[in-house]
Amino acid sequence: MSKWNLIIDVALCHNCNNCFIACKDEHVGNDYPGYAAPQPLHGHAWIKLEQRERGAAPMVDMAYLPTMCNQCDDAPCIRAGDGAVFQRDDGIVIIDPEKARGKKDIIESCPYGAIWWNEELELPQKWVFDAHLLDRGWTEPRCAQVCPTGAITALKISDADMARKAETDDLAVLSPEFNTRPRVYYKNLYRFTHDFLGGNVLTETGDILDCLAEATVRLRRGETCVAETATDAFGEFKIDRLAADGEAYVLEISHPDHVSMERTVQIDGSVFLEDLKLVRKEG
Amino acid sequence: MRLQALLRGVSWALNFTAWRYPAFKQRLHEKSFVAQVKVKDGAVGRYYRFGNGGVTSRSGLHGNPDMTISFRTASLGVRLLTPPVDHMDFINAMKNFALQMEGEDELTQWFTDTISIMMSIRWDHGVDVGNGERRYTNITNGGPLFVYVKDGKIVRMTPIDLSDDDAPSWSLTARGRTFMPPRKTTAHPHGLASKSIVYSSKRLLHPLKRIDFDPGGARNPRNRGTSGYERIGWDEALDITANEIKRVKREHGHGAIMNSHGSHHTWGNIGYYLSAQVRFMNAIGHTKMALNPDSWEGWYWGGMHHYGNSMRNGAMEPYGQLQDCLDEAEMIVFWASDPEATGGSYAAFEGTVRRQWARDLGIKMVHIDPYCNHTAVHLGGKWIPVVPGTSPALAHALAWVWIAEGLYDADYVAQRTTGFEKYRAYVMGEDDGQAKTPEWQESETGVPAHTVRALAREWGRKKTYLAAGGKGTTFGGANRSATGAQWARAMICLMAMQGLGKPGVNFGNLQCGAPIDYEFYFPGYAEGGMSGDLNGTASAIQLYQRMPHLLSMNTVTQQIPRLRIPEAILDGETSGFPTDSRSLEGQFMGFRYPSPGHAPVRMIYKYGGSHFGTTMESNRLVKAYRSDSIEFVVNQSIWNEGEVPFADIVLPACTNFERWDIGEWGAAGGYSQHNQTMLNHRIIAMQHKCIEPLGESRSDYRIFTDILKRLGLSAYFTEGMTELDWCKAQFDASDLPRHISWKEFLRKGYYVVPFGEEAHRPPPGFRWFAEGRRKDVPEPAPLPAEYGERYLEGLQTQSGKIEFEAQSLKRFGKDPERPPVNKYIPSWEGRGTTELVDTYPLQLLTPHPRYSFHTLGDGKDGVLNDIADHRVLIGGHYYWVARINPQDAARRGIAHHDLIRLHNDRGSVICAAHVTARIMEGVVHSAESSAVYDPVGEPGQSPDRGGCVNTLTPKRHMTAMTTGSAPNSCLIEMEKWTEPAGGTS
Predict the structure, then answer these.
(1) How far does A219 lie from chain B, in Å, by closest CA?
(2) CB contact at 8 A, A8 and A63
(3) How many Å apart are CA A107 and CA A94, to the nearest integer?
(4) Is B525 an active-site residue?
């Protein structure tokens, strides 16, 4: 039995918002009986982009995270819906726009906050994976079709195949601790959830400062080497995917012609260490 | 006999069509009159009596017909009535008075329209996709779209998924990997959001008159912008407008009407400002609004003096750079270049996938920009923040390192350039005693000297593409500042030192240079559509020969620079320098307003998007609109926004989804020849009339026709053709008929131009020059006389080489801010402006917005309002976003999404603060082009909470002897803003 899944590559999303706009375009002013009643023009974001900025000048990066109904296999909204919410055989979760009328509880049931309350219709609403279009033969939901970077892809495969793919491609779901078994997966989620340690390394010749390339940068926790990299032509390095747990790391920078440097660093957010100056070895 | 038979056939065909099509029968109920068709001498004739949903006809001459069409001879009549009719025959007969039409325009226009509709009513358009939906096509500034319609209402709009029937996609192989673009079109947010702006609550649905405007009495011009409006009928609105056109010409004389239009309206070759609008304005005569090349400023006024390319306003040849960059380049330096924000203006996200390929191939990326822009955060790489306006100093320091360390292409410099010794002397400080070292530039640019040295060494050793501006050359904020010309000039000099045109060494950011077919002809919008204007558009190059149509010509030579409209109105005089792309020298020919013997402007015909968001020091324009000297303002607009509430009469136009048009995605022609080079697939589309015009709105073509009916000019304007006929004329003028029938094109809605044979892919721009060969890229420029010696040999410069000392500037010699050798002259408004910087310590950057396009898509109660990076909803208003640095915010007690007032002596604007480390300290980043002007008090004198940040930018020209805009040289201060108690509305 093949079922729908959505895979989102956080490293490829560049916040164009086309997925958000396409969802608005599809649902504002349009009624799809059995699938979804019209979405209000303003206020709702059935597909919503979160963003996270990391670092400081000149090393800043952004992670954008499209979020929407996760089409959970163990969906709390189905339990809360008391028959008004159901999961189809193809994995898509639908809030019945008739039966769910007045049931505000359904909104609170979603730990991801992906269900919206339509004041006018007194209806809980959310992204329906464009089931109404797929049922008419469309091959993918609109968010995937409008995505210019290839960040969003929809796959209809068996759960076993999807589990294998998640393993191979290092996919993750949002907040797995909710235990709702989402069908929306993320690649490179660390860009949103984790932090980096970056810096630039300099060397001095007379009174002229220069960037130091090809210095070895090692990050240790205790005696364990967590990461090793080298500085680039601008003397910069960036070690990513660090957990901001506030615990100390030791940063060690070495270069054949220079005296090595050690620094203790705490990661409680992304850090950029500016102008780390290595001293040349004598002779 | 033959003519008589044909004339009899006309009434038979009309009645048959009425029998077959109820809508046509309905049309025949509209009018009762007698139309006479005859040979001039009356030897053959037939008259038609229209009425009661049909037509009867009788041979002979009617005693008193309401209208008459006469042919010089019977044989001409036969030729013009026997299908297929060649419109050229019509044109020739009209021009030689062998075909004449007499009668009231209302009837003659109805008659010719009826004949046209009879011919086209059986044409089928769109595809039935089931579920009661029909799929049409259209094109926006943000890409082509499928438009799904059900029960007369737009259901959805999607990018186009190419089918197996469409031409295959190109592929290319670079460094052992093969790349092919996705088989679909991309869409920019402002295109994809079109449904929400079609059904916008800000649509103008009825003609309006300002309540205290009385064309026969008190006009109250000073109340423009504050008084309300009342609904009037179309006839009254058109009568007032037509009467005012006549009145100001009669009372004031030649030139009293000014044409004021936005550069970017809806897409389409017919309903565009360079098409129907300019034909209309030429028909009535108008003082032209002279456009400055605002996407090209630095390249036009500066760059091209070093390397030519004037026909592209100073932009680089954009041909085979994609293949070359992916094959050869080791690094791309993006300098004031953010293609992920602006998509090369019309190309949506077509270049995105190509830049991702480059990243995947390991090509290094550097981004020089005060803002860590969208391209930088998407692609990654080294961000080098630079103080706005100081980039030329950084460039000179790069040159210093290259010279000092021998990291430039001395052979190329010797063979392909002139004047290097003089530039070298300047850079090394031999002429002014100041070596332009990395340390020298540090205090100016804020870029550490060690970063400059590292960049110079990387660049000097690696084959590097320079993306100078959004398209690789041109565009980009750095070219719209006091130092914009210096910057563009510096970019060209740097590339000349590295061997511009050699493998892997070129301008570009993979936005241009896709291997599409460059030979297949379809007219771009700058070719003027139906304008027939050989002076004001690029029609003369191809379209005028290919599409038979009447010439149009503005007989008024008076013009006003767009940037000086307020001075022209408020001071009564101004001056400017022209955008003249024919040569390097055309721009030196200054002009003055008023022109000798011409009338000053007394009436403004405003068309298209708002200027308040796009005019520097916008409050000037607000004041000009309220001037007593402007007796009449008509605004023809789709939405009630910007300066619409400053008009006396408002004419509601419909969108491109509610009328017929035709176009090619991204095709500009003219100054952006082969602009489709940005696309992965060339898409030519029928822009179907998807739904009926909303409310009482009408197509621009119809509005112009209806005004011209009142001036006896409608037949001249329409040539007896409907909008759909003009679409077919464009189709017929192109290469399309050899590949797809009109019938199929109209049904399916689009055609994908095959990419052509691999062997025909053009080489990279300037490769010919680097290798000392004749020019071999497919552009018809420069013009023949621009070559110094043999045709196609050398550049447009006097020497035919890249000139470090620009001879054209040397000969001009009158602009101290543009010396022949490019030198660093600090901005006249920047961190060094001591008299201002204490009061206004922040620099304001006003790039193009990412989500809207000029004023399209913004405001209008559309869905873009709900994108937090575009506008933020605070206290019931959608505020324009200003990005500010965390330190600058903290110093002023400003938190994320606080309301802030940006201000200087020119005005103030209320924005929503977006606090981000992506903008360097001391700089505020807020896009220009807000569509909303919403002063909290007296217009022109109170804070604007609509977000027209150009209120703050200087009107001063880039340099004294240019008409170049320089909005990015702007100092401001900001403070937290609290709504006055009780609100401000």
Answers:
(1) 22
(2) no
(3) 13
(4) yes
Chain A positions in Cβ-Cβ contact with residue B896 (cut-off 8 Å): none
Evaluate if residue B262 carries a pLDDT over 90: no
Question: Are both A148 and A185 inside the same structural domain?
Answer: yes
Q: Read off the CATH number of the domain in which B599 is found.
A: 3.40.50.740
| pLDDT in the model for residue A59 | 98
Select from A177, A192, A207 the last residue of a domain: A192
Q: What does the DSSP 8-state code read for residue B564?
A: G
Q: Exposure string (b/e) for B71-89, b if CB count within 10 Å is 16 or more?
A: bbbbebbbbbbeeeeebee
B352 vs A148: CB contact, 8 Å cut-off?
yes
Q: Do B448 and A210 touch (CB under 8 A)?
A: no
Same domain? For B447 and B360 the reply is yes
Q: How far is CA B703 from the centre of its chain?
A: 22
Total number of domains constituting chain A: 2
Q: Is the pLDDT of residue B826 over 80?
A: yes
Determine the residue type at A79.
R
CB contact under 8 A, B192 and A22: yes
Q: d(Cα B14, Cα B17) in Å, to the nearest integer?
A: 5
Q: List pLDDT tens digits, range B472-484.
A: 999 888 999 999 9
Cβ neighbours around B63 below 10 Å, total: 7
Which among B187, B872, B685 is positioned nearest to A25, based on CA atoms?
Answer: B187
Complex ipTM: 0.98
**Inter-chain CB proximity B917 and A30 less than 8 Å:** no
Contact B174, B328 (CB under 8 A): no
Alpha helices for B676-741 (secondary structure H):
700-709, 714-718, 723-733
* Across B902-909, average pLDDT: 98
Q: Is B264 a catalytic residue?
A: yes
Which tokens go with A113?
Answer: 């906050």
CB of B972 within 8 A of CB of B829?
A: no
Substitution target from A17, A149, A212, A240 for chain B, most B beta carbons within 10 A = A17
Residue of B nearest to A26 (CA): B156
- Vertex B38 angle, CA B36 and B39, to 5°: 160
In a 3-state reduction of DSSP, which class is residue B416?
helix
pLDDT at B544 (0 to 100): 96
How far apart are the CA of A271 and the nearest CA of chain B, in angstroms?
A: 13
Decide if B196 and A18 are in contact by the 8 Å CB cutoff. no
Instruction: Report whether pLDDT(B187) > 80.
Output: yes
φ, ψ for residue B619 (rounded to 5)?
-60, -25
A112 and A37 within one domain: yes
- Please give the share of chain B, as a percent, with pLDDT higher than 70: 99
B478 and B533 in a common domain: no
What are the backbone angles phi and psi of residue B768, rounded to the nearest 5°? -55, -40
The CA distances from residue B111 to B66, B364, B716, B721, in Å, are: 11, 65, 14, 11
Question: Which structure tokens are listed for B643?
Answer: 């300066």
Sort out which chain A residues have CB atoms less than 8 A from B865's CB and list them: 42
pLDDT band (50, 70, 90) for residue B981? low
A109 and A143 within one domain: yes
- Please indicate, yes or no, whether residues B288 and B327 belong to a single structural domain of this protein: no
Same domain, A39 and A112: yes
Which domain, by its residues, includes B15? 2-120
CATH number at residue A208: 2.60.40.10
What's the distance, Cα to Cα, between the start and end of chain B in Å?
74
Report, as an integer, the average pLDDT of B104-111: 97
**Residue A89's CB: how many other CB atoms inside 10 A?**
8
Per the structure, the complete domain to which residue A205 belongs is given by: 195-278
Asked if residue A23 is part of any domain, the answer here is: yes
The CA distance from B514 to the nearest CA of chain A, in Å, is 17
Residue B521, pLDDT > 60, answer yes
Among B155, B188, B372, most A C-beta atoms within 10 A, so best to mutate, is: B372
Catalytic member of B261, B264, B549, B877: B264
